[in-house]
Every structure is written in structure tokens, then in C-alpha cells.
């Protein structure tokens, strides 16, 4: 059973759970401030659930890659959308400042091997959540 480490807590979940759902069920939404009320509810279109994730997860979905290419996000930041990220093992998750959680320090930004080779050229599109 994977453990998600977030904001000083250890949250157990099942392999295959969507990260956003895991965090919200534990009372730890992946949003900052008012974005807890003003978001797309897991649709992958608003970008307010952007987090840094370390550990095994699915590849980025097309929808996620598209959203993270537009401001205020930066496709090279290494962030993930919690609503599009499926837990595959133990994770360490960090939320950055800003309405969208986009304020990653320049030295903390990582390309993730060119976004994992642009996420294996869409190979994981069918692996991610549907919505």
C-alpha cells in the first residue's frame, strides 16, 4: 500500500488512486488559498492542483502537458497536476506558493530528462485518469 508524504503527513492509499483524490480524502487539498473553491474539480484544465511529485506515478496525460505549457505554468518546472497523476508507489509531494502553486524557484526547477522524453511521446495517455 503506497504512502503519500504531504505537508508533514503520511497518507496511505491504494496503488492506482488519483493523487488529487487521495489528498482531498485526507483533508489535504492540493490547492492554495481560494483555488480550493475556484478549480476545475479534477478536469485537468485549470492547473491549480500543480504539485512537485517525487516517486513512481503515471506519465503525464496530453491534457496535463497542454495545461502546464500555458502561463502561469512553465513546462520545464517539473510540476504535475494532482488530478491527472496516478499513484504507483510511495510519493513525496510538495505544493509551492502562488494561486496555481507555480512559484518554483529557478534552481529547484528540473526538466525531468526533458519531461521524461515528453512522457514517452504520449505512450501514457491511456494510462492516466479519464477526467
UniProtKB/TrEMBL annotation:
Composition bias, Acidic residues: 107-122
UniProt-listed SUPFAM superfamilies: 2Fe-2S ferredoxin-like
Molecular function in Gene Ontology: iron-sulfur cluster binding
Membrane-spanning intervals of the chain: none
UniProt cross-references to Pfam families, sorted A to Z: Fer2
Domain spans labelled 2Fe-2S ferredoxin-type: 2-99
InterPro entries for this protein: 2Fe-2S_ferredoxin-like_sf, 2Fe-2S_ferredoxin-type, Beta-grasp_dom_sf
Stretch list, region Disordered: 103-131
Name by which UniProt lists this protein: Ferredoxin (2Fe-2S)
Organism classification: Archaea, Methanobacteriati, Methanobacteriota, Stenosarchaea group, Halobacteria
Amino acid at each position: 500500500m503506497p504512502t503519500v508524504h504531504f505537508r508533514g503527513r503520511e497518507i496511505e492509499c491504494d496503488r492506482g488512486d488519483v493523487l488529487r483524490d487521495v489528498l482531498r480524502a485526507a483533508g489535504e487539498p492540493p490547492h492554495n488559498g481560494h483555488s480550493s473553491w475556484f478549480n476545475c474539480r479534477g478536469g485537468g484544465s485549470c492547473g491549480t492542483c500543480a504539485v512537485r511529485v517525487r516517486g513512481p506515478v503515471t506519465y503525464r496525460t496530453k491534457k496535463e502537458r497542454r495545461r502546464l505549457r500555458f502561463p502561469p505554468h512553465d513546462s520545464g518546472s517539473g510540476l504535475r497536476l494532482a488530478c491527472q497523476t496516478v499513484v504507483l508507489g510511495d510519493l513525496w509531494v510538495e505544493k509551492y506558493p502562488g494561486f496555481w502553486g507555480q512559484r518554483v524557484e529557478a534552481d529547484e526547477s528540473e526538466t525531468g530528462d526533458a519531461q521524461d522524453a515528453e512522457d514517452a511521446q504520449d505512450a501514457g495517455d491511456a494510462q492516466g485518469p479519464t477526467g
